[in-house]
Amino acid sequence: MLYVVATPIGNLGDITQRAREVLESVDLIAAEDTRQTGKLLTHLNIDTQVVAYHAHNESGMTGKLLERIKAGESIALVSDAGTPLVSDPGYSLVDAALVAGVKVVPIPGASAVTTALSVAGLPVEGFAFEGFLPAKKGARRKKIQQLETEPRTLVFYEAPHRIAATLEDLRDVLGGDRSATICRELTKAFEQVVRADLGELCESLDKDIPCRGEFVVVVEGAREVQTGTADVNELVRALLKELPPSKIAGVLARVVDMNRNDIYELAMRIKQGN
Q1: Strands 127-132, 104-107: parallel, antiparallel or unpaired by DSSP?
Q2: Which CA distances in Å does 182 have to 87, 121, 168, 190, 266?
Q3: Out of 6, 52, 98, 156, which could bridge 217 as a Cys pair, Cβ 3.0 to 4.6 Å?
Q4: DSSP-H helix ranges across the chain
Q5: Residue 4 CB contacts under 8 Å (≥ 6 apart), including other chains
Q6: What is the β-pairing status of strands 179-184 and 215-219?
């Protein structure tokens, strides 16, 4: 069978007993980075064979690993840290295994997403995990603009060399008064959790918050806008200059107290001059 095994995101003490037993008992461990996984296995005194399985060899290795499972071996899939497939390789193998009728067993444990949400102090009844935003500024801003009216809490991963640019884009597009929490180096020796407005976080970065380590950024969702009918009419008129009625209906239905069909009909009437 195939085990999908979550490993610590920093503190090695967070390994579960079940994960330890699986890593020790399987025939093979497919790891995103054999060196990183090797450190964990050395810490646990486990000598199971490890092979590389990452974004660059995923297509070629998936079939080979699946054949070994079909031949009777059990394989554990691990990423560098946390839960595999969450912004990490592994989807191809899990998908192929399920299609082939192979049993896939989750071994739950650490995840940077849920760890950050647990201490961010923002609503978690629903959240939107976006992983890493695009590296290029134009594409990154476009993606953030698409999330501007998302009412759920937003969660992003970011690298240290891009965290400043990403925070600035979040501030510029979403507004400096949008509440957010930066989680840096979670569960590690220099763990840092800072809650403030996006504008304040931009000012704190590289001063109170070093641009080093791994970042999870949790951002408040779009606040509900209370508007009357007259206000909606004005919003629709303004948006018609840039968007078609169907798009306006989808956007406004998430932030005003009107259903999508009513907004669409209103937009059509205004567009037709009625």
Answers
A1: unpaired
A2: 18, 11, 13, 13, 41
A3: 156
A4: 17-25, 34-44, 58-70, 91-99, 112-120, 137-146, 163-174, 198-204, 229-239, 245-252, 260-271
A5: 76, 77, 83, 84, 85, 90, 94, 104, 105, 106, 107
A6: antiparallel
Strand (E) or helix (H) holding 192: strand 192-197
| Token code pair at residue 157 | 């991963």
Per the structure block, which two tokens stand in for 175? Answer: 């507004």
How many angstroms separate the CA atoms of 91 and 113, rounded?
18
pLDDT in tens, 66-77: 999 999 999 999
- Judging by DSSP bridges, how do beta strands 192-197 and 50-52 pair with one another? unpaired
Beta bridge pairs of residue 193:
183
Q: How far apart are the first and last CA of the chain?
A: 64
Let me know: does 187 contact 194? Beta carbons within 8 Å.
Answer: no
pLDDT tens digits for 30-39? 999 999 999 9
Neighbours of 266 (CB within 10 A): 20
Burial grade of 114 (CB within 10 A; 0-12, 13-18, 19 or more): middle
- What is the 8-class DSSP label of residue 14? G
Q: Using pLDDT thresholds of 50, 70 and 90, give the confidence band for residue 204.
A: very high
Find, among 171, 166, 177, the residue nearest to 211 by Cα.
166
Nearest to 175 by CA among 144, 151, 133: 144
Written as six digits, the tokens of 4 are: 């999908």
Residues in CB range of 21: below 8 A, 6 or more apart = none
**pLDDT level of residue 228 (50, 70, 90 thresholds):** low
Query: In whole angstroms, what is the distance from residue 230 CA to residue 175 CA?
Result: 25
- The answer to whether the beta carbons of residues 102 and 70 sit under 8 Å apart is yes
